[in-house]
């Protein structure tokens, strides 16, 4: 008890008749676990962690009468292993994780008087499991009281039984069973489906299993654009089938599909199409399947304009009905689109659950705009895939009325030129400007820097007299260019007050000084 054993000890004496190992750390029963104790009659391995039981784990135990494996973690049992224990009378498997009981499970337990399968995970089992049990077969062949048959106690309570057509045979067996088979607890209860949860077996009548049969009230629908459309199909089947919808060979998202039972053998499946558009038109297929097969029904959907539009083909807004004004604003704008919000005022807001809107979208200079119909209860819409750096206009009106002033928004989409591209363009401009500046001769800078300071110092007093000199100075001004200046002098630009104007005139018979250009300064 509570020993730190992880496997069956190998040195068990051969004449041991009873072994009890509980609350230990055993995790499996390997092959030949008890091959050296062939005299063993009682084996208790309760409340361990056994998850695996080898098909030959009970080999060499022909005298075993009692096997208790309560409180372990077995999800399956190799039932053919009991061929090696023909005298077994007590088998305790309660509080495990068994979820399957095959038809041959009890075939190799002919002398069993106590079988406990309670508190497991059994949901569906066949009545053939017990019809193939030798104890039950002997009770059916009993012809008179002279033939005594030992009673067999059967415990099957506290399992999550699913009471549908698959359990029909087992429920009938439980209702009809009698001595020598005795139920420890005859009040077995259903855990599903929901409408049978908590009911006792003797309270339910289960039908035979049937293949799904699908149908629809209308297989051809024509609906206006913008409406919330619900497609409905009905499935009659037992057990309850799995139902799914497909469109253009694609499985539709589950959160748009709801399936619920409306009777014992009938379920209703609905597919919601919010704000139907012409692109939603086509064939929708409702498919149902259970273990007997599958079937389907197709519903053809056609989406048309909800009304004949009274809005002109052009964009010019016209007068709207009183009380139908809509306030429109831009909630978000990106390079390629915007998100609009609008709020209907006055009569339009009186019944928001029934108010439809018409959205007109297009380039500002376009003669015709795209029309989008928005269903009731929606007051936002995102326009995407617009051209960058383009001027657009969007108008929102109630129903098919022409938009009026204040219901249109004009906006310009952003540029798709990235920040990196803008930076590269700026670098190119700077490089070009620098190249142009460097191309100017260096002499121009030197000459200008040397000549301008002296000029600025004397020009204020000399320039007034130059204006009074008249035509005499006009001739001298022609020669006062940058290339005709004497070396190291600024006299050609400005004259002091000392009356040196005669020096600028050419004297007869005297040769003129040669001109010096800016290159001579260097």
Write up this protein.
The strands form 7 sheets. Strands 1-3-5-6-7-8-10 form a 7-stranded parallel β-sheet. It has helices at 128-131, 134-141, 168-176, 347-350, 419-438, 442-468, 471-477, and strands spanning 18-20, 28-29, 42-44, 52-53, 66-68, 90-92, 114-116, 152-155, 161-162, 181-183, 190-192, 210-215, 220-224, 229-238, 242-247, 250-251, 257-261, 266-273, 282-290, 293-304, 326-333, 338-344, 357-363, 370-374, 380-383, 391-398, 408-412. Among the domains are: 18-140 and 150-203, Leucine-rich repeat, LRR (right-handed beta-alpha superhelix) (Alpha-Beta Horseshoe), CATH 3.80.10.10; 210-304, Immunoglobulins (Immunoglobulin-like, Sandwich); 325-412, Immunoglobulin-like (Sandwich). 15% of the residues lie in helices and 26% in strands. The model is unreliable at 307-323, 466-507 and 517-522 (pLDDT under 50). It starts with 17 loop residues before the first strand and ends in a 45-residue tail after the last helix. The protein is an alpha/beta fold and 522 residues long. The longest helix has 27 residues, at 442-468. Residues 324-416 form the Fibronectin type-III domain. Residues 212-304 form the Ig-like domain. InterPro entries: Cys-rich_flank_reg_C, FN3_dom, FN3_sf, Ig-like_dom, Ig-like_dom_sf, Ig-like_fold, Ig_sub, Ig_sub2. It comes from Erithacus rubecula (European robin).
């Amino acid at each position: 008890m509570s020993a730190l054993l992880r496997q069956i000890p190998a040195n068990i004496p051969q004449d041991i008749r009873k072994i009890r190992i509980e609350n230990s750390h055993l995790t499996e029963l390997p092959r030949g676990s008890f091959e050296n104790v062939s005299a063993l009659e009682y084996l208790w391995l309760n409340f361990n962690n056994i998850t695996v039981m080898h098909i030959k784990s009970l080999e060499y135990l022909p005298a075993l009468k009692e096997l208790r494996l309560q409180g372990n973690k077995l999800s399956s049992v190799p039932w053919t292993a009991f061929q090696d224990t023909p005298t077994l009378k007590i088998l305790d498997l309660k509080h495990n994780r068994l979820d399957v009981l095959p038809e041959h499970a009890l075939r190799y337990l002919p002398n069993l008087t106590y079988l406990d399968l309670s508190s497991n995970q059994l949901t569906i089992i066949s009545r053939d499991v017990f019809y193939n049990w030798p104890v039950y077969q002997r009770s059916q062949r009993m012809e008179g009281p002279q033939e005594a048959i030992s009673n067999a106690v059967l415990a099957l309570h506290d399992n999550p039984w699913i009471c549908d057509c698959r359990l029909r045979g087992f429920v009938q067996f439980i209702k009809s069973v009698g001595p020598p088979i005795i139920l420890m607890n005859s009040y077995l209860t259903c855990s599903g489906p929901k409408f049978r949860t908590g009911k006792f077996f003797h309270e339910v009548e289960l039908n035979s299993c049937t293949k799904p049969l699908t149908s629809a009230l209308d297989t051809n629908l024509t609906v206006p654009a913008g409406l919330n459309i619900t497609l409905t199909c009905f499935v009659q089947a037992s057990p309850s089938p799995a139902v799914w919808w497909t469109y253009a060979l694609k499985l539709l998202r589950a959160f748009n599909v709801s399936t619920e039972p409306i009777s014992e053998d009938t379920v209703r499946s609905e597919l919601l199409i919010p704000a139907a558009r012409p692109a939603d038109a086509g064939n929708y297929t409702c498919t149902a399947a259970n273990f007997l097969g599958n079937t389907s029904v197709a519903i053809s959907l056609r989406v048309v304009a909800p009304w004949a539009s009274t809005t002109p083909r052009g964009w010019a807004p016209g007068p709207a009905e009183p009380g139908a004004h809509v306030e429109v604003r831009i909630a978000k704008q990106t390079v390629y689109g915007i998100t609009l919000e609008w709020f209907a005022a006055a009569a339009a807001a009186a019944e928001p659950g029934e108010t439809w809107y018409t959205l007109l979208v297009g380039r500002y200079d376009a003669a015709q705009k795209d029309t989008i119909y928005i269903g009731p209860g929606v007051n936002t819409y995102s326009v995407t895939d617009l051209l960058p750096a383009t001027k657009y206009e969007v108008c929102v009106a109630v129903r098919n009325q022409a938009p009026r002033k204040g219901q249109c928004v004009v906006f310009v989409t952003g540029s798709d030129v990235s920040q990196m591209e803008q930076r590269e363009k700026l670098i190119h401009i700077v490089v070009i400007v620098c190249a142009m500046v460097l191309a100017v001769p260096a002499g121009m800078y030197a000459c200008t820097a040397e000549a301008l300071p002296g000029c600025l110092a004397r020009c204020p007093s000399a320039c007034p007299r130059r204006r009074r000199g008249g035509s005499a100075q006009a001739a001298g001004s022609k020669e006062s260019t940058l290339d005709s200046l004497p070396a190291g002098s600024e006299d050609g630009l400005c004259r002091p007050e000392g009356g040196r104007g005669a020096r600028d005139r050419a004297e007869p018979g005297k040769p003129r000084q040669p001109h010096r250009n800016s290159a001579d300064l260097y």
